[in-house]
Amino acid sequence: MSWAKANGIINGTAAGVLEPDTPLTRNEAAVMAARLAKAMGCDAAPLSSRTLLACADAAQVPLYARRAVKWCMENGILTASEKGFEPKGTMNHKEAVDMILALGCWLQNNGPVVRTIPASAVVQATEQHATLQNRINAIAKKYGAVGLSVAYIKMAMYQIPLRMERRFAEYQP
Asked: What is the pLDDT of residue 106?
């Protein structure tokens, strides 16, 4: 906590007091994620309000957190639920881990969440693969997307977060 405070990731309460036992709100998590990205030299400025404005509770996001929430949402670091963004809602363990992994991927790539699959894990393309790829290309073209691809992989998905966990070790104080 002292490292995060010294590096401007957390500020504590309005009086500057750290309260580690207080539940973390989604607003606070977004602010901390954006501050960490900035502290690591990344641009954490949101490009659009569209993702946040799609949430019914967008007006409930306080001014101090608005830019961070927009940035986190547009980069897939935090997502909304059926209820909206739920700015004052607290994060459970799963949401916190998902946020940390998404932020780690973003930091690793200095951009949107991209999980790279090594070529050794790709199984040879099949006719079914080609058919699926053609369908995806048609959808991508319709919406102006570029670079979508499909690959059958032979490694378990849980191996990707484990690789990210090793990368995070270098950021610990």
From this structure: 86
